[in-house]
Amino acid sequence: MANINNAISKNLLDNILPTFGNPRVNIPVWDNSQRMFICEEYESASGNYYYSGVRFCDRLVIREKVGLFHNWTYIDSLELYAFNGKKMELVQKRDYDKEFRNEEFIRQESMEMLKDFLTAVLKAQGSPIDPEAVETRAMEIVEGCYKSLLDPDFNIRLAQILPALNQ
After folding, report:
1. Distance between CA 118 and CA 136 in Å, rounded?
2. What would you measure as the largest C-alpha separation in the chain, in angstroms?
3. Where are the beta strands (DSSP E) in the chain?
4. Is 165 helix (H, G, I), strand (E, B) or coil?
5. Per residue of the chain (167 residues), what is the pLDDT tens digit?
6. 0.70 exceeded by pTM
């Protein structure tokens, strides 16, 4: 117990979980149940709540734009980003209208978008396209984005990737 108390000093705790009335340090919040960082939260003038969710692996970033209206949660859009050196480039985007947010739907859509991107790049390069290999690779990459930050073998590059998420 002494190690935990030493690791969580009063200053650290006040920055992460400040008392009411004090601002919280602006760091992305990890939501383990959704396996993504929650960022860009806001409430519209009409009282609806919106946020962006970001999950990533060493090759891909998946960004969800989510809206909460009364008791319903909708997916507004999905975006896939690829890394280009130290910054991210948008490679696929889909917008949705009144689509209920469902975890399996998000995974499937992300995989389909990545398959489309990979197939288009291979076709543009004149490379042979093996649909099964593309699907297998897309599934592996998307599943890698669902790895938990709390897992001991989570990507060590987190410190390098997090600043890019604030772009």
Report:
1. 11
2. 61
3. 29-31, 36-43, 49-56, 60-69, 72-84, 87-100
4. helix
5. 444 444 555 565 555 555 565 665 666 788 888 999 888 888 889 888 999 999 988 889 999 999 998 889 999 999 999 988 778 899 999 999 989 999 999 999 999 999 999 999 999 999 998 999 999 999 999 999 998 877 776 655 565 566 655 55
6. yes
Instruction: Report DSSP letters for 7-30, one per residue.
Output: HS-HHHHHHHSPPTTSPPP--PEE
Instruction: Please give the Cα distance from 126 to 15 (Å, whole number).
Output: 52
Place of tokens 């790895």: 147
Q: Cα(101)–Cα(68) distance, rounded to whole angstroms?
A: 10
Q: Are 80 and 91 in contact (CB under 8 A)?
A: yes
